[in-house]
Design brief:
The structure is a homodimer. Chain A is an alpha+beta fold. Chain A folds into 2 domains: about 80 residues, Orthogonal Bundle (Arc Repressor Mutant, subunit A); about 50 residues, Ferric-uptake regulator, C-terminal dimerisarion domain (Dna Ligase, domain 1), CATH 3.30.1490. In chain A, about 35% of the residues lie in helices and about 25% in strands. Chain A is built from 5 helices and 7 strands; from the N terminus they run H-H-E-H-H-E-E-E-E-E-E-H. In chain A, strand 2 and strand 3 form a beta hairpin. In chain A, helix 3 packs across helix 4. The first copy, chain A, is globular, with a radius of gyration of 17 Å. The interface between A and B is medium-sized, with 34 and 34 residues. Strand 7 of chain A pairs antiparallel with strand 7 of chain B, so a sheet runs across the interface. The first copy, chain A, binds a DNA duplex (30 and 30 nucleotides) through helix 2 and helix 4.
Chain lengths: ~140, ~140
DNA sequence: TATCTAAATGAAATTTAGTTTCATTTAAAA
DNA sequence: TTTTAAATGAAACTAAATTTCATTTAGATA
């Protein structure tokens, strides 16, 4: 929790109970989660309102504490940036999300696509398919 | 329009006026468009209801006439599969969407990620950054 | 060609994700 | 401690997408 306090102090915003809880949750879950999942996760103790969760995740995105991740379903999810840049394997059968450490196209960012004269600053890559379990050994 | 008729006959579903109009629209626009954009595009003649547009795009996706494309905003868009597999450059400033012909990671599909024992069947890659115009020559 | 029927349509109601409003509360500066 | 701008959260709202169900229609069958 000390770490959470320090991070929040560094972004130049008020260090509220709600923000600490939300950031802590993102650390604990350590995978892409939607605002509603964060809200549900915290709702037992019921200390944080839905609106605050949405607003706080947006703030965290602006401050680069989280990155936005979008899967095929179009729901906006966020993942803590203390996990370094990576992509995901998403099972089309059971929905499991597996982080993929190595990024084969990291070199794209900062480069210019010649034909289009386009400067790439970020990229989204998600891989879909079937996990070991769902393939039943095949 | 002959082409549209033939395609619809081949998927084993009724060849309705609405389906023909929607497929024709996807051919004409030839870029990722949302259900609402298709609806608006057709609304002058007002021949197709909103529900039908949503349902038809889902049908087309199941029949592989269109593929689903998701950008950062989370809105579900579709693009005709008569355009072969490719990705997009999306300008963070003006929103322009530029198709990117070459796919550097096409070889991923059908391959197994060893560490995770995961069979990849499809992938989503979108590149964000700044187009020539918005960079003002830089 | 007329009849029939399962499939398709679309208006309206509903659901879900996300945003805005505004009165109240609070972190932290003075 | 007082003060105040920032933050919160309930409720209202918006937008995207889905469901319901009465009506229409494509195209198979007689």
């Amino acid at each position: 929790m000390d770490r959470v306090n320090e991070i929040l102090r560094n972004i130049g915003k008020k260090c509220t109970e709600q923000r600490k809880l939300i950031l802590q949750t993102l650390f604990e879950l350590a995978k892409p989660v939607s605002a509603d999942e964060v809200y549900e996760y915290l709702s037992e103790t019921n200390k944080v309102g839905r609106t605050t969760v949405y607003r706080t995740l947006e703030l965290f995105e602006r401050k680069k504490l989280v990155r936005r991740i979008i899967f095929k379903d179009g729901i906006i999810r966020y993942e803590s940036t203390h996990l370094k840049h990576h992509h995901h394997l998403i099972c089309l059968s059971c929905g499991e999300v597996i982080p993929l450490e190595h990024c084969a196209i990291a070199s794209l960012d900062g480069s210019v696509i010649e034909d289009a004269d386009f400067l790439v600053t970020e990229h989204f890559l998600e891989l879909y398919g079937y996990c070991k379990k769902c393939r039943g050994g095949k």
